[in-house]
Design goal:
Elements (H helix, E strand, L loop, with lengths): L2 H15 L1 E3 H8 L3 H13 L3 E4 L2 E4 L9 H5 L3 H15 L5 E4 L3 H4 L2 H4 L6 E4 L2 H9 L3 E4 L3 E2 L6 E2 L1 H7 L4 E7 L2 E2 L4 E4 L2 H12 L1 E7 L11 E5 L4 E5 L3 H5 L7 E4 L2
Parallel strand pairs: 4-5, 4-9, 5-6, 9-12, 12-14, 14-15
Antiparallel strand pairs: 1-3, 2-3, 7-8, 10-11, 11-13
GO molecular function: DNA binding; DNA-binding transcription factor activity
Pfam families: DeoRC (PF00455), HTH_DeoR (PF08220)
Keywords: DNA-binding, Transcription, Transcription regulation
Length: about 250
Amino acid sequence: MLTEERQQAIATYINKHSICRVNELCKLTKSSESTIRRDLIELEKRGVIVRVHGGARSLQDYSRDVEQQVRFNLNVDNKREIARFAVINHVTNGDHIFLDAGTTTYEMVPFLREVNDLHVVTNGVDVALACLDNGIHTRLLGGEAKLETHAVIGNTAMKQLQEMNFTVSFIGANGLTADGQFTTPDPAEAGIKKAAIKQAKESFILMDSSKIGAANFASFAHINEAILITNNLSTGKENILPEQIRVEEARS
């Protein structure tokens, strides 16, 4: 298979499945891992896909959620470093905090175990179970639970949120656009994120740097409404950050 044909096949596969791993692309094209990784670098430079740890994701499918089990396995080290930084620097004893259903907010839970008299509200089923397993006082919002992301959404959850106030909210995002909008595929989840930010004294968006420059269907916050916490940024990622963004880098 010629390079151009192989890269077209890779791009088509990624756009069809939204996200995939390197080993899938090796089987698809009967190519080595090193060849696939070079192809992904080239496709990312051309703005066709975005590389993530162990694979790549599409930039074309703005309205489609990636299944939770897949999301848990992507960029795990960066997510943990971001989560650890967020807890150490922005959570104190006695806080009432909101954690949304993102996989990076999920990674905060083991570090939250060390915080005394902490109260967590979440719309994430997985987050709630992890908090309970770690002995953390937890309230799970009621409503409809999504199959793909295990996030609770809907009017019931929104009404409950609007009656609560938080010391700080921690929110996950699927993308940050050039004009400073944090985005996610589902408008229903965007509504929950937006409400949680409104009800908090301070809000942080937890997002690894692979999502900088990506756009999804629904916007939920502008950069003037929350502070971004991300992993150590490359020069390339720094150059495409929106102007006036407030950003904290989680460094080891």
